[in-house]
């Protein structure tokens, strides 16, 4: 007999880029649930056993060369994956794109089916208001809304009657098969110690704080920007004054998941100078391979990293990084991949009512 439980679960995942849905599918598979993973064609991938990938969604229409076909698929894909599923099969929306998604999710819930909608940013965080939010509250009122922390649950509970905490899954499938980070591995890295910054270097990601951080580090190092974007030229010039060499992964072409993991494993640490985040995929990816992460002391980050790796100012953050570069050490207290996986498994087991 198959270890996967019938009727399985539908995972509605219209995001063409973010791997959150892939990782959620792995969690469901580990719970013994058969997964019907609906994705855009651009997200087709080789899944684990028990995960059936169905590339029937449109993805970003602006990215398509066949606009008419993409528009048609944008209409029919959600119908097929949300409405035309057996009512006894739970539907989990890893993302939702617009009001069309919400109408169908709300309709399915009104028919008595179990519908779970992952809300990554409640309106109190994202700053949304007005007619859109009123529609969202009305259409999703019968759904179970899932958020990543108790703090977000308290916010979302202002708008929705049923809100559950389902911690963000770890990047298990992304890092599977790679070795974990260790200070000993850094001995083979030639030249300057390496500090990595994950994601496009934008003001909201704290890129303008990096020169002040670098000044407090107290030594030269290489700042590795792991993204498709480039740091502003004025930031690069200011960093050069502090002996910091900036390297952009974009200079070597598109960054694959494998390239990103390999780069992290040769980094002394990751700097994450974000001022306001609900959940940082970048931080979770780094912690999944064990790289020490240093960040500002904010609500979203505090749930992942220990106080010893959190700072209140650029200067304090730079001093922490400087200490790490002088004496590389494995982190103590930041959530490991195993910790993150266990938390996610336990929460989804409860929400999906999986029996032992």
Q: What's a quick, concise take on this entry?
A:
It comes from Curtobacterium salicis. This protein has 356 residues and is α/β, with parallel strands linked by helices. The protein contains 14 helices and 13 strands.
Please give the structural blueprint:
Layout lengths: L4 E8 L7 H11 L2 E8 L10 E7 L9 H17 L7 E3 L5 H12 L4 E4 L4 H4 L4 H9 L4 E4 L2 H7 L6 E3 L6 H4 L18 E5 L11 H8 L3 E6 L6 H9 L2 E5 L8 H9 L3 E4 L8 H8 L4 E4 L2 H4 L7 E2 L2 H13 L10 H15 L5
Parallel strand pairs: 1-2, 1-4, 2-3, 4-5, 5-6, 6-7, 8-9, 8-11, 9-10, 11-12, 12-13
Protein name: Glycosyltransferase involved in cell wall biosynthesis
How would you describe this structure to a colleague?
There is one protein chain. This protein has 356 residues and is of the alpha/beta class. Helix content is 37%, strand content 18%. The chain is built from 14 helices and 13 strands. It has helices at residues 20-30, 67-83, 99-110, 123-126, 131-139, 150-156, 172-175, 210-217, 233-241, 257-265, 281-288, 299-302, 314-326, 337-351, and strands at 5-12, 33-40, 51-57, 91-93, 115-118, 144-147, 163-165, 194-198, 221-226, 244-248, 269-272, 293-296, 310-311. The protein has a seven-stranded parallel beta sheet, with helices on both faces. The radius of gyration is 21 Å and the shape is elongated. The mean pLDDT is 90. It comes from Curtobacterium salicis. This is Glycosyltransferase involved in cell wall biosynthesis.
């Amino acid at each position: 007999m198959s270890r996967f439980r019938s009727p399985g679960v539908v995972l509605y995942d219209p995001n063409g880029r973010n791997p959150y849905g892939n990782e959620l599918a792995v969690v469901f598979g580990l719970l013994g649930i058969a997964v019907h993973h609906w994705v855009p064609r651009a997200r087709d991938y080789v899944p684990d056993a028990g995960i059936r990938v169905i590339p029937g969604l449109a993805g970003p229409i602006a990215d398509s060369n066949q606009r008419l076909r993409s528009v048609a698929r944008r209409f029919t894909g959600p119908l097929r994956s949300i409405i035309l599923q057996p009512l006894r099969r739970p539907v989990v929306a890893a993302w939702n794109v617009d009001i069309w998604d919400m109408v169908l999710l709300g309709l399915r819930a009104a028919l008595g089916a179990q519908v779970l909608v992952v809300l990554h940013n409640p309106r109190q965080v994202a700053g949304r208001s007005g007619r859109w939010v009123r529609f969202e509250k009305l259409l999703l009122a019968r759904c179970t809304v899932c958020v990543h922390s108790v703090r977000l649950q308290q916010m979302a509970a202002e708008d929705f009657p049923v809100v559950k905490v389902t911690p963000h899954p770890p990047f298990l499938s992304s890092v599977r098969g790679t070795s974990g980070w260790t200070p000993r591995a850094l001995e083979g890295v030639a030249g300057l110690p390496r500090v990595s910054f994950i994601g496009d270097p934008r003001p909201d990601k704290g890129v303008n704080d990096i020169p002040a951080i670098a000044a407090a580090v107290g030594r030269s190092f290489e700042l590795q920007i792991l993204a498709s974007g480039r740091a502003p030229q004025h930031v690069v010039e200011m960093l050069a004054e502090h002996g910091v060499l900036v390297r952009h992964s974009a200079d070597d072409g598109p960054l694959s998941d494998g390239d990103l993991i390999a780069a992290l494993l040769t980094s002394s640490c990751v700097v994450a100078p974000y001022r306001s985040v609900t959940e940082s995929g970048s931080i979770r990816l780094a912690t999944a391979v064990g790289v020490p992460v240093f960040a500002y002391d904010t609500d979203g980050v505090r749930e992942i990293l220990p106080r010893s790796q959190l700072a209140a100012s650029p200067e304090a953050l730079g001093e922490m990084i400087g200490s790490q570069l002088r004496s590389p050490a494995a982190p103590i207290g930041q959530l490991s991949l195993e910790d993150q996986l266990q938390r996610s498994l336990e929460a989804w087991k409860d929400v999906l009512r999986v029996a032992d």
